[in-house]
Prior knowledge:
Helix content: 25-40%
Number of strands: 5
Distance between the termini: 74 Å
Amino acid sequence: MANFDLPRKGSAAACALVTMHAMGGTVTVPSWTRVIGWKGTHSHFHQNVIGRLERTGLIRVDGDLWIVTNAGLKFLGVVVNDPTAVPSAPAGSRYVAPKRTLGAATHFSTRADAFEYRGIPSLMGGHRVEYRPGAVALDA
């Protein structure tokens, strides 16, 4: 059923459905019109309220009783335990790209003597220091 087929909030049909649910979900037409305070004719009530709710599947008839269906309860916002509903599966974890280290520069070639500067001591405060303590000199 499309959204434009459902009764608008605040319309006579929507208010009658709310009243019907408040009365227990099962009513007869005379008691329903008395509780609503319907001022129109009996045929107008059938056209404007009952006919519209029945066409959209929000109520159904059982003899002289009118009953709110599961679709009607969903329209009202009531949680319905529907045995035909498929249980939802939990969402999976998000995709995370594999980590790539920034120092692993394997995608380009280097010159044979590119890392010779590591073997040359530096001056710091008048003293010669290694490039980095514990650094391994690369021999290419």
